Each structure stands twice: as structure tokens, then as C-alpha cells.
């Protein structure tokens, strides 16, 4: 069987655009990176030094009939306009996250993708993160019993990076930047509607956009989740904390340090001994007796069937379904809109997402 090769061009050759070219696309033998379009001359110079073709305009790129796939890695506010133009020029499109700032804009893109018959896929790459896939395995295999509460956090101490991420008009802020990943992971794993959302956003750095947030979600199946992003955390809390009916799991960091502590269900353990806690005595908060629990190592992460670009090629060739489906991405955008609404009104928002 002969395999077909696809030419790809990048629109927005900054940090993430060049990461796709230098890392993510390197291992895919079916995709050839042909060229780029960027509004900054210095980025064009870098592209030329790497042997890439530099287009003088988006229209010039889109009128190149040899380009089959367009990757959009510009600031968030221009994703929609570029995506629609590219789809109408009969290109398949990969778009960076957050795909758009508002759900209705993704709906417009989805309509054009359907009308033109081109593939449109959003790069929700953190579905492939090992820490998340470890959590997914613990969740699916009920390694801590039925999970009833999940905490997912990312903490940094470097403020909001770069230039456009500070600005509302470009779709800056941490809900859109990191929230989109953490929420996408949860909705990809928990197959139950979100019934309520409460959120608060932080503005400690004085930017016009949020520099972090906390949101509390309730799912119809009873699971609750706390999702938190911080950029002024000089001490980080663990990346994941999972509470199940038969155990607790913790994943400290992306290096997969962590553990599971499971209840020994078949042992009648002796009552915990009261401990002195501060100026008081407690049995409730005392550690469980030694025979009551067992510590186990984190499991090896589950795996997704294909990597992002392998999946893209097989979707283009009609061989498989997209791992990142547009209706799932749309659900995350709607959830982020509820987060903004909750924070603005300081109210719990009832949802059926
Ligand atoms: P960046 O500022 O480093 O790069 C953006 C580039 O786009 C710049 O070179 C800029 O000159 C160019 N640009 C701006 N407007 C343009 C336009 N209209 N046409 C063509 N080029 C234009 O930003 P970044 O960090 O690379 O982020 C780009 C996108 O990638 C954002 O949507 C961001 O959220 C996403 N991103 C995703 C991940 C991930 O893990 N999936 C990580 C980082 C960034």
C-alpha cells in the first residue's frame, strides 16, 4: 500500500507554531512542513534559516494548491477568521487551543467544515499527557473504588507569560490558556453532564484578564471536581488529588511522583489511636491504624490509540474517528462561558453541559 504525503503550512510561527514543526511533526512521515506565514519579520527570518518557504500573506499561502493542511498557532482572537478562510480554500485545518474565545464562533467554524467537507481538528494535546492518562486509568479501573472527588491543579510562580496573553482582546487570561486543558481532560474522562459550576477568578497581578482561577464542578453522576490554575504560587500543591470510596490517590507533578493508598477492605482493623493535634486530641483526624491501608505505586498510564498527527491523517483518509471531536471541544467552551458567568455574578450556575 502506498502512503500519501500531505503538505502542511503554519500560520503563526511563534512559540507553539515552531514547537509543532520542530517536535510534534518530526515523527510523522506522512506530513511535510512546507512553509509558514507570520506577521513578524523576525519569525520569517527564523523560518527561512530553517529552509521553510515564507508566504507574504495568508492569501498567498491559501492559494498555494500544494498545501493540504493549515496549522493555526496565532493568538486566540484570530483563530476563527483564519480557520474559516482556510476551510473555504479547501484546506484541512488544525487549530491550537483555545480554538475560539466563544462557543458560537466554534459553531460557525464547524458549519463551514461540514459545508466544505474539510477536516477541522483542535490541538487539545493534554489528552495525551501521562499524568492525565494515569488518572484516567485509576478512574476507569476503579483503583480507588468509585471516585467521588477530583482535584486538578497547575501552579506556577511566573505570572502570565508573553505579551498577548495579558490582553482581553487577544483572548488572554488563564481560564482560556490553561483552564481549557484541565477542563477538557475532565470532560474527556467523566462521561456525565456537568450540572453546576461555581468559579472565582484572580486578578492579583493587576492585569485586565484573570491570572488564575478556581472552579467547582458537579457532575450528574455525583462526582465533584475542583480545578485550579495559579500563576503566583511559590509553593505548588499536587497536580492531582483523587478521592475514591476505597482509597485516595495523589500525583504530585508531571514527573509522575505519587502514590495510591487503599483501604484494606477485608481486614477488621483496630480503631485508630487518638493523637494530640495542636492544643486538642482527635481520633477523627488520627492516621488509620497500620493494618487498615496499603500503599501501592501509581499504575502505568493508559494509552490513546494514536498520537495527534497520526490521528489527523487517518481522519483525513476516512479510516478512523477524531480523538479530539469538535462537539467535545464545544462543550468545554460552553463550560468556560459558565465559569466566566459564575465569577461575574458570584453565583452557582446550573448547567446541563
Ligand atoms: P506566540 O506569541 O509565541 O506566537 C504567535 C505567533 O503568531 C507570533 O509569531 C505572531 O507574530 C503570529 N501572529 C499573530 N497574529 C498573526 C496573524 N494574524 N497571522 C499570522 N501570524 C500571526 O504565541 P504561542 O505561545 O505560540 O501561542 C499561539 C497559540 O498556540 C495560542 O492559541 C496558544 O493558546 C496556543 N498554545 C498551545 C499550547 C499547547 O500546549 N497546546 C502551548 C502554547 C500555546
UniProtKB/TrEMBL annotation:
Q: Which InterPro entries match?
A: Gfo/Idh/MocA-like_OxRdtase_N, Gfo/Idh/MocA_oxidoreduct, GFO_IDH_MocA-like_dom, NAD(P)-bd_dom_sf
* Coiled-coil spans in chain: none
**Residue ranges annotated for the GFO/IDH/MocA-like oxidoreductase domain, each copy included:** 132-249
Which segments constitute the Gfo/Idh/MocA-like oxidoreductase N-terminal domain?
7-123
**What protein am I looking at?**
Gfo/Idh/MocA family oxidoreductase
Q: What does the organism's lineage look like at the top? A: Bacteria, Bacillati, Bacillota, Bacilli, Bacillales
UniProt superkingdom:
Bacteria
Amino acid at each position: 500500500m502506498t502512503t500519501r504525503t500531505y503538505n502542511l503550512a503554519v500560520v503563526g510561527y511563534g512559540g507553539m507554531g515552531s514547537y509543532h514543526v520542530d517536535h510534534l511533526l518530526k515523527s510523522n512521515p506522512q506530513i511535510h512542513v512546507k512553509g509558514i506565514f507570520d506577521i513578524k519579520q523576525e519569525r520569517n527570518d527564523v523560518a527561512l534559516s530553517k529552509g521553510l518557504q515564507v508566504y507574504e500573506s495568508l492569501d498567498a499561502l491559501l492559494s498555494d494548491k500544494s498545501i493540504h493542511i493549515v496549522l493555526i498557532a496565532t493568538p486566540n482572537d484570530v483563530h476563527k477568521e483564519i480557520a474559516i478562510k482556510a476551510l473555504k480554500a479547501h484546506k484541512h485545518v488544525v487549530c491550537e487551543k483555545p480554538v475560539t474565545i466563544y462557543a458560537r464562533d466554534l459553531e460557525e467554524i464547524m458549519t463551514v467544515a461540514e459545508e466544505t467537507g474539510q477536516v477541522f481538528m483542535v490541538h487539545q494535546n493534554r489528552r495525551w499527557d501521562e499524568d492525565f492518562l494515569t488518572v484516567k486509568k485509576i478512574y476507569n479501573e476503579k483503583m480507588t473504588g468509585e471516585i467521588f472527588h477530583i482535584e486538578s491543579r497547575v501552579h506556577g510562580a511566573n505570572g502570565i507569560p508573553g505579551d498577548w496573553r495579558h490582553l482581553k482582546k487577544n483572548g488572554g487570561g488563564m481560564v482560556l490558556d490553561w483552564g481549557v486543558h484541565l477542563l477538557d481532560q475532565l470532560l474527556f474522562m467523566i462521561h456525565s453532564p456537568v450540572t453546576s459550576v461555581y468559579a472565582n477568578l484572580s486578578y492579583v497581578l493587576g492585569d485586565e484578564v484573570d491570572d488564575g482561577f478556581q472552579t467547582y464542578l458537579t457532575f450528574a453522576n455525583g462526582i465533584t471536581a475542583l480545578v485550579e490554575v495559579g500563576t503566583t504560587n511559590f509553593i505548588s500543591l499536587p497536580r492531582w488529588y483523587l478521592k475514591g470510596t476505597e482509597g485516595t490517590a495523589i500525583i504530585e507533578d508531571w514527573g509522575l511522583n505519587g502514590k495510591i493508598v487503599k483501604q484494606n477492605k477485608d481486614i477488621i482493623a483496630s480503631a485508630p489511636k487518638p493523637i494530640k493535634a495542636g492544643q486538642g486530641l482527635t481520633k477523627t483526624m488520627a492516621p488509620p491504624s497500620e493494618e487498615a491501608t496499603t500503599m501501592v505505586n501509581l499504575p502505568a498510564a493508559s494509552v490513546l490509540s494514536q498520537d495527534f498527527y497520526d490521528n489527523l491523517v487517518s481522519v483525513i483518509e476516512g479510516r478512523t474517528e477524531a480523538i479530539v471531536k469538535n462537539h467535545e471541544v464545544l462543550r468545554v467552551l460552553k463550560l468556560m462561558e459558565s465559569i466566566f458567568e459564575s465569577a461575574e455574578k458570584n453565583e452557582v450556575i446550573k448547567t446541563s453541559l
